[in-house]
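Record type: ASSEMBLY
Status: queued
Input:
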Amino acid sequence: MYLLFILLFPLLIGSALLIFKPKNAFVLSLAASIIELAATAFVLQQASSNPVSFSAPWLASEGLYFSLYVDGISGVLIGLCALLVPFIIATTANTDRANNSQFQGLMLAMQTALMGAFLAKDAFLFYFFFEASLLPIYFLAAIYGGENKNAITFKFFVYTLFGSLFFLIALVYVYLLTPGPFHSADIEVLYQTAKGLSADQQGYLFAAFFLAFAIKMPVFPFHTWQPDTYTVAPAQGTMLLSGIMLKMGTYGVIRFVLPMFPLGVATWGLTASVLSVIGIIYGSIIAIQQKDAKRLLAYSSFAHVGLMSAGILSGSIEGIQGALYQMLSHGINIIGLFFVIEIIERRTKSREIAQLGGITQFSYPLTVTFVILSLGSVALPLTNGFIGEFLLLKSVFDQNVTLGIIAGITIILGAVYTLRLIQKSMFGNVSRITSDFADLTFAEKAVLIPLSVLVILGGVFPSTVLGFSEPAVQQLIQWFK
Amino acid sequence: MNSIIALSLLGILNLFLGFWLSRKTIQAATLLFLAGSMALTAMDWNHEMLWYGRMFHTTNTSISFSLIIQLAAFMVVSFSKGFGIDEEHTHPAEYYAILLFSVVGAILMVSFDHLIMFFVGLEILSVAMYVLTGSDKRNLRSNEAALKYFLMGSFATGILLFGITLVYGATRSFYLTNIAEVIATTPQASTPVFLSIGVLLIIVGFLFKISAAPFHFWTPDVYEGAPTIFTMFMSTVVKAAGFAALYQMLTGPFGSLYGTWVYPIYYISMLTLLVGNITAVYQQSVKRMLAYSSISHAGYLLITLSSNQASTSSTILYYSLSYTLATIVAFGVVMLVAEYQTGRTEKPENFSSFEGLAKQNPGLAFCFTISLLSLAGIPLTAGFWGKFFVFSDIFNRHVYYPVILAIIMSAIGVYYYFKGIIAIYFKEGDIERIELPALVKFAMWACTLGTLLLGVYPSIVKNLF
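Status: finished
Output:
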C-alpha cells in the first residue's frame, strides 16, 4: 500500500494543480514533493531489510498484474527520483514558473511516471510508465521550451517512441513464451523463460531491448535527439531528463537486458560497449568545443552515461554497483550544474561561455558550489562521482583492457571541459554582461548548498547506498551467470 | 433481439414526431430511444438464442458489438446540433429516423446466422448511409460524396452478393452452421473451385465496406464530403459492424478454409497499413487525415483477423471500442472547430484552422489530444492496449513481418497525429472560446474519460467474455 501511495501521490497533487489551477502552486508542489520524499524514505527504510511489494490484478486474463516492488536496485532509483524532484521544484522559486500550476502539475505527473517505471515488477507495467513519462516531459519542453522547440521536441518524442516500440514487440515475444494459458509478464518469470532461448533468439531480443534503452540514455549513435532537446527544454525539464529520465535507460539494461539475455550480451555486449565508449570520447570531445554552456553539459551527460552503459554491460558486480552509484551521483551533480547555468542565464540572459567571466567577484557562494559540483562531475576523490566512475572503470577494465584504457580518458577529457567552463565563467575578467551580477538569493542557496553537501557526503560515505543495493545486485547477477 | 423491433418501430415513430416536436425534443427523444434499446440489448446477455427461423443469433459477442454500435449512435446523436446550416433545410426527424434504421441494419450485421439476413442488414445500413452522406443537399461536395459512395457501394454489394450465390451453390445452404458442416465434411478434393471464389468475392465486398486498400479510394472523398457528423457515424458504426460480420463469417462457416482466405487478408492488411499511414502524412485537412487514419486502423484490425486466435473476437471488440471512442471525439472537435472557422478561413478543416485552440478552449484541446493519443496508440489511452492485443494475437501465430511493419507504421502514425496536437498547443492562433451545448460536452467528456479508463484498466472490456 505504501508503494501505491508513493506512486500515485504526485499524480494526484499534480492533476489537482492542473485542474483547479490554485494561485500558490509552488508551495503546494514543493510540499507534495517533500511529503513524497519522506514517504519514499520510509519505504526505503523498510526495504533495507526485506523487499517491499504490492500486487493487484490488472489484466488478469492476460496474466498482467499491477505489481510494484522495491529491492536494492529499484530502491536506489526511487530514492534518486524522490530526492531530486523537490530540488527541481525548488529551482523554480521566484520565477514566473513558480506559481504556474500547469508547469508544476506536469512536473509532478512526470514524477509519477518515473516512479512507476522504477517500481514496476511487471514488464508491461514498466513499459507503460516508460512510455507514459514521454507525455508530461514532451509538454513541458514543448510549451516552455526555447527556440525551435516544436521541431526539436517532436523529434525527441518520435525518436524515443520508435525505439520503445521495438522493445514492446520483443517483450511481447518473450511474454508469449511464458507458460500458458495465462502467460505472465512478471520479471522473474521472464528471466526464467528467457533462459531457455537459443543464443540466436537472445541476440535479436537483446538488440530490440537495447535499442530502446540506448535511445533513452542515449548511447552513440542514437544520441542525435539529446543535445538539442536538453538545450531547448526549460531548465527544470532538462533536469528531469538528464537527472532522472535517462536513468530509465540504464535501469532497463540492468533490470531486463542483463538477466534476461546473458547469451545475447555475450554475443553483442562487446559491440554495445564499444559504442558506449565511442560515445564517451565523442561526447567529451564535442563538449570541449561547445560555446553554449547548457549544450556543453548536455554532451557531458552523454559522455557520462556512456560509461555507465559500458560498465553495466560488463555484467560484473562492480559494474552494476558502480552504475547504480553513478546514476545517483550523476543525477545530483547534473541538476546542480544545470541550475548554475540557469542562474547565470537568469542574470546575464546568456549562456555563451565566451561572454561570461569574473562571476566569482560578485558571488562567492555560487563559485564554491559550482566548483564542488563540477569536481563531483569530473570524479575527484572524496566526491560522489569518484566512487561510481572508479567502480565502472574497473569493471570495464576487467572486461577488456583496451576498452578500459580508452574509457579512462573520460576522466581527463571531463576535467578539460568542466574546468574550462569554470575558468571561463567564474574567473578571469569581468565581462560586459556579468558586471552587475547579483549574489545568490536564499532560494538558490537552498538548492545549491544541500546539493554540494550531498556531493561530499556521497564521496565519503558510499557504503550506505552500496550496502543497500548489494544483495539485490548479487541476486540479479545469478541470472546473468 | 427485442432491440431491433423496438428501434424499427421507434424510427417510424420518430418520423411522425417531426410534425409536432421541436428539433431539441426530437434529439432528446432519439437519445431516450437509443438508451432504451441498449437496455433491451443488454437484457439478452448470457441468453444465447436463435430467432426468426434460426436466422438471427444473439451471443455475448454479438450483444457486445450491438452495444458498441448503439453507443456510437448515442454519441453521434448527442453531438449533432441539428443538421444543415439553416433551419429551413433541415429535417431532423427524418435524419434521426434514418440513423435509427441504420442502427437496426448494423445490429443485424453483427448477429446474423444466415447469409440473407446478413445481406439485408448490410443493405439497410448502406442505403441509410448513402442518404445521410448526401444530406447536406445544397453542398456540392456532399452530393458528389453521396453519388460516389452509392456507385462504388453498389458495385461492392453486387460482388458480395455474387460471392454469397457461389457459396450457396457449393453448399446448398444460407445457414452459417450448415455451410460450416458441409465444408467440413466434404473431402478437400471434391470441394468445388467456385466455393473458394465465392469466399474471396465475399471478402472483397467486405474489404470495400471497411475501406481496406486497394478498395479504399472512395473513403477520403466520401469522409471529407459528408457532413462531419455522419462521417463520425460512418467511420465508427460501419466499421465496427463490418469487422464483426467479417470475423463471424471467416471464423464461422469458412473457418476450415483458413488456408484460402488468410493470405489475401494478410497481404491486404499490410498494403492497407502502408497506404493509410503514408498517405495520411501528406494531408493538410484534419478530416482527410482522419479518413486515412481510419484506413490504417482497418489495417491493424485485419492483422488481428488474420491471426484467427481464440482471443481475436475480444481483440476486435476492444479495438473497435477504443477506436470508436477516440474517433467520435476527434471528428466531434473537427466539426466544432470547422463550424467556428467557417467564413473566417478558406479551409476550415485544415490543420491551420486549429492553431491556438488550446488557449481559450482547454477542455476541447484536452479531449482532442487524448483522442489523437489513443489513435496513435500511446500508453495511458485505450489505443495502446488495442495495438497491444493485436500484436500479441498475431505473435501467437508466429508471424512477424506484419508486426514489424505495423510498428513502423505506428511511429509514422505518431507523426501525423501529433501535427494536430502541435497545431492546437504550440502554434499561435486567435480562436475565441467555443461555446458547447451541454449534450456535446457530455458526449465529449464521456468518450474521453472512457478512453482513459480503458487505457488504465483494460480488463473491464477485454474480460467480458
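Annotation: The interface with chain A takes residues 373, 378-380, 384-385, 388, 391-392, 395-396, 403-404, 407, 410-411, 414-415, 418, 422, 425-427, 457-459, 462-463 of chain B (CB under 8 Å).
Annotation: Chain B has a mean pLDDT of 88.
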